Amino acid sequence: MNKLIPAIRVKNLNFYYNTQKVLEGVSMDIYQSKVTAIIGPSGCGKSTFLKCLNRMIELEGEVKIEGKVEFFNQNIYERRINLNRLRRQVSMILSKPNLFPMSIYDNVAYGVKIVGWRPKVELDEIVEFAIKDADLWDEVKNKLHKSALELSGGQQQRLCIARALAVKPKVLLMDEPCFGLDAIASMKVETLIQSLRLRSELTMVIISHNLQQVTRVSDFTAFFYSNENRVGQMVEFGVTKKIFTNPLDSRTRDYVLARRS
Ligand SMILES: Nc1ncnc2c1ncn2[C@@H]1O[C@H](COP(=O)(O)OP(=O)(O)OP(=O)(O)O)[C@@H](O)[C@H]1O
To answer: How many angstroms is it from 95 CA to the middle of ligand 1?
Structure first.
């Protein structure tokens, strides 16, 4: 394996909703250009953790964060961080597609326009490239000005990915991106993740309950689990193949085996 460079370093992260502690002592590196999967039982704090990586968690209300999250060596919880810039560079794909009620074209152009004015030809090109990057071009090229909400669930999810790609993020956080999709739509999203993994500098973090999918798409896996006080911890992190064939911790082994059988 080539030298691994951390895009994000999480150092001793504790997280609270109000006074309720949800995550404790999470430390891990998320490597550049790799896919890291987060797995674990429901309620162990996977989504919460993901939202801490671009400060989306602060939209959840009264929250407290201790520890550090460094994005290319800068602590994102420092006061002077530009949140809009951070969330463009560390972009989030939710389990339910969250498109705007506007055209396919405008959805993808939206974030690009916020960053700054561009001539129409340039914008057209960015939109086309992003939709091609999201493996959706052939399906939508003749209806770019139709409502994005008329697309199927799987197409909407790939359009969300196109919208994120249009502003050239460094990291893509995906929270169960295939949730609720049928097998074919789910496979298309998975194929897209595979193709982004092969040909780009993009770093991806994906939460999935589908462990078969995790073994197919990820390079590294982190296993989260709630302790006896129902506080989430990262129990084990490693190369995906090792986590699934020879984990160190019995809790990881039990979870991986139970969900495979
Ligand atoms: N906005 C919120 N306010 C208060 N508590 C919350 C909030 N969101 C989540 N929680 C609680 O935090 C804990 C962790 O939730 P989280 O959604 O991060 O877990 P998860 O591992 O992603 O679960 P799942 O696999 O079911 O999506 C749970 O006990 C949950 O009830």
So the answer is: 14
Q: How close is the Cα of 178 to the center of ligand 1, in Å?
A: 19
Residues with CB under 6 A from ligand 1: 17, 22, 40, 42-48, 60
CATH of the domain at 64: 3.40.50.300
Give, as one character, the DSSP assignment of residue 184.
H
Model confidence pLDDT, tens digit, residues 81-119? 999 999 999 999 999 999 999 999 999 999 899 888 899
Q: In 176-245, at which residue ranges do the beta strands (DSSP E only) sit? A: 203-207, 220-226, 232-239
Q: Is residue 1 part of a domain?
A: no
Question: What residues make up the domain containing 134?
Answer: 6-260
Q: What ipTM does this complex have? A: 0.98
The alpha carbon of 47 and the centre of ligand 1 are apart by a number of angstroms equal to: 7
Domains held by the chain: number: 1
Q: Is residue 77 part of a domain?
A: yes
Distance 144 CA to ligand 1 centre (A): 36
Taking CA atoms only, the protein residue closest to ligand 1 atom 26 is 42
Pairing label, strands 171-175, 6-17: unpaired
